[in-house]
Amino acid sequence: MEGLKEFITPTRFSLFGYIVAIVYFFAGVLFVGITSKLRLNERRTFLCDFSGAQPADKLFLQAQCFDKYEQHYNSPLPLYVFVILNFATVIVVCLVYSWCCVKSRVDKLQAAVIPDAENPRPRPRVETRCIFFLYFLHLVARLSLGIIFAVLQNFMFYSGGFQVAFVCVSSRGLESLNATKSASSAKSEPITYCHNSVASEKGTCALLVLVVNVIFAFLVFGEIVYLVVRAFRRSKFASDSEFCANYFFHQSVTALTPVCFRQRMKRRILQETEFLEPLIHCGKESANERVSLDEIFLDVIIYTGRATDEFLRECKRHLIYDFYLKPESKKGSVEIKTRKELFLANEDADNPRKILIVGRPGIGKSLLCRELLRDWSKGELFRNISERFKYAFLFQFRSFYAETTEKISLWQLFNRAACMDGPVDHGLFQELLDNPETILLVFDGLDEFRDQGSCTANEAARFGNSPTEEMPVSALFVKLLQGKLLPDVTVVTSCRPTALESVEVSHFERTVEIMGFTEEKVHKYVSKYCQGDGHTAARIWEHLSSNLHLLSLCYIPVNCRIFCYFLKELIKPSPPDAGSVILPTRLTDVYLGALRLFVFSHHPEFRDKPFRGNESFSDSVEKTLTDLGSLARRGIEEGRLIFDKEEVAGMTNCGLLTQLPDARLSPVEFKQRFSFIHLTLQEFLAAREISKMDPAELKIFITSNAEDPKWQLVIQFVAGLIHGKKMEAIEGIVSCLHDSLLSKSPSRPSRRKALLMMNCLYEYNDEATVKRVASMLKQNRDFHGFIQLWNCNVTPADCTAIVYFLKHIEPLNYYLELTCNSLGDGGCKELSKLLKEGGPVKLVIPENNITDQGLIALVEAISADSCKLKKLNLVKNTSITPEALGLLCESLKERSCKLTHLNLGGLQLTDNVLTQLCESLQHVNSSLTYLKMTNDDFWTDALILKLCETLRHPNCQLTAIRISGHKITNQGVHYFCEALECKHCKLTLLNLTSNRITAVVLPNLCKAVKHQNCKLSTLHITSWNINNRSKQKLEDALEAAISVRKQAPKELEPSISFRETSHKLEFFHAVHF
Fold this sequence. Notes:
Elements: H1 2-8, H2 15-45, E1 46-48, H3 55-73, H4 79-101, H5 103-113, H6 130-157, E2 165-169, H7 171-177, H8 183-186, E3 191-196, H9 199-233, H10 240-248, H11 258-272, H12 284-288, H13 293-296, E4 301-304, H14 317-325, E5 335-336, E6 354-358, H15 365-378, E7 391-396, H16 410-415, H17 426-434, E8 439-444, H18 457-460, H19 473-482, E9 490-495, E10 510-516, H20 519-529, H21 534-545, H22 548-553, H23 557-571, H24 587-602, H25 619-637, E11 643-644, E12 657-666, E13 669-676, H26 679-690, H27 695-705, H28 709-721, H29 729-740, H30 748-764, H31 767-779, E14 786-788, H32 796-806, E15 815-817, H33 824-836, E16 842-844, H34 852-862, E17 871-873, H35 882-891, E18 901-903, H36 911-921, E19 930-934, H37 941-951, E20 960-964, H38 970-980, E21 989-993, H39 1002-1010, E22 1018-1021, H40 1028-1047, E23 1064-1066
Parallel strand pairs: 6-9, 6-10, 7-8, 8-9, 14-15, 15-16, 16-17, 17-18, 18-19, 19-20, 20-21, 21-22, 22-23
Antiparallel strand pairs: 1-3, 2-3, 4-5, 4-10, 11-13, 12-13
Domain NACHT: 353-499
Protein name: NACHT domain-containing protein
GO molecular function, one term: ATP binding
């Protein structure tokens, strides 16, 4: 039995050969049993027909006939003996090979691969080929025996088979039986008929034995061919160590080769990290739009050290946004511009090998870890492989949930790395132990580790430092940081700021913080996300950049991806030239969706669960959001954006809070501090709680806090959250807006309150309420039609709300002033919608970052028949090019254009622009009467001549010109004098500033203003060289000319209209304003 047990052990056979041998053995046992039983039954069941013979003779004769049957069909061996020999010889060959030939050799090699706790290094490899040849010879012997026994059975021993009917001839028996018969009868040999009932069963059994021999011979032959092919393709396959390990012990020898292991692992990493996980599972993104990590990944802003929190201390709102979009970290920190620089020496550390990456939820920590592995796999992390990192392993702490109490060894830890393609065998493990400086270990998501509180030096000290000793994952992690395991290994760890208290930061040689995206990177990310779809990318970027709240929230990459996903899904069905798709511009709608996705992406209750878009918050999550809302409101009330650990207890894992650097209270005492990941999220959560107030209390809250900047966005969110509810609270918004628009000269708080209330009405989204406010204004005599929102930080998103309100106060003529804001092209496009429906009669939009696209949108609106705009001020929008200004000039020729006043000061004026403008002024449809072009570097005497020629044209309607140019000389004034004397010139006001005019030209001016065709009543001049005497002469001349025109008959001045007090002459001596 002991020998049989050894035989059954498959360590000296291949798995296939072992199965074939075992099956053959049991087949032999079966056939031996069957044939032996048939042998015992055959003599007993063999019958012959001996009619008339005595019973004793019958038995003798039957035995004699059976012997003859045996000689005829079973000679020289009975079938059962043949079967025993057939199977036994093969089994003996297997036993001789296994016990006598290779046992000691195989046992030694098997012992060499068993891990040694003290020395994992494998023993030297045996390069001889004895075992291969012995195994091959034993297969050949088995094949030969199978063929020999098949041939013997079929052609020599049992070629005739086994007959059931047998004719037996026995002369001695017959003589005894027929002694009294005649002599003639005795001469013929008697015949006896016999019957063997077992013969058919023996024939079937013999046939089965033959079939088994043939089948197993083919199986053995197949294994022989396989070995020959393997040995021919790779000669080392036949060596004893590799042959046993690969063929007998079923271990992958290829994985033991470090080069092959690295190649396979790199391929697996590139495959498994190729695509991003979809935001919503089973949605369109996961089915049709798999996002490639390489195509969309964008380097985030990273600084060494922790970011300061100075932006949270008494900081204005726009500075807080600047922090999110253009982060600044504390003094002495260094920007990490490339991923390679994480590992390079810098001002903060010399050759850092223990690196901690800190970042808020969704900031890109996990993607950075994956990208580090991809860089290593592609050989891009370090171009020169001799510099660093032959091996890289990624460990995700979330995968160790079940191992918080289980103990594992360092070798087992390696085998649990992500993206593994085969195990780390003991040979490779020893390679890692011998060269730890070539290893990069990336631990992602320490905050997701359930046993993070045990990652302390005291806890790790309970265990030894042997690489084969089993201990908790937390202890292994700490020992790797301490260098007690794998000294000089490089360890990169990522975690949220909220988990920093669970690890001793002193173990890390470099701490960096991911700041997120700047505005430029957000723009680039949008382009990458749309994958070449320029139309969609342009619309998404226009929408995000037009709203400061959304844009600043995009500093977190996952938020940027959320917005891109939803906006792209809205835009995608529409053709490029379609303008019917309305993107969500109401902040409340956007933040409600963003909050859902953010909570489902980062809250522990939903972590690693697919989000399908129709889930709702559980009671526990809703309670957490309620607590956060109360905390957010209290923080805004107290002017605090930083909270203590006790205040955020039970809320830190929701993904909406981030931990700031600890505050030092004393040399030995520190205080943990937290803040919301973004100010707008704090305001939105506060609004969720405030919107639950009683309607009367909510109205009081709105009216009492409307002018307080810290509550303005909160109130806007509240208006959106109470949408659809007929509440008394909305009356507070109505009254605030009504009151703030009645003043002719409103203060800045009043102007900002008016803008806020317009946004609130837009968020509330109720047409009836807006119409009621507009009606109240139109009926109020104190409303003078002035909508003044200058210097209110108006954005394109605000323009949407402004247009939403103003379109309801038609047909009232009103002025809209938006000086010194941030309208941009998006704001102009919104205003163009208002102009096409009538709009204001005066639009003042200087210094608003308008470019060509914005001006083109305004030009299209100005040309509409329904547009009422008469006065347009575009001063200091320096990004507008001459080409776009040319289009504006061309629009003045349109019959539908009603512009009478145009201010182009501080724009990019060129000769071509002035030429086009002059052509338009000479057009019969031109109605422009006032032109201001205060561009100091533009005007020259030659250009003044071109303008003056236009003033003399009969169709030119200009009555007032204001220009400035330090290149204008006396010659330019001479051209104006000639124009003033022309009968077609209609100028009543001339303003010349910033010029080089001298007193020499004053006589010409005096002559011109006295001319009978001159209609001038107001003259502004800036000069350095005009004395009081000259000034008095010009004043007298102008007054005399005006007196003459007043006394003239009406028919001599049909186009002149002026007041006596309107004449004025101004000089500035030696001072230039």
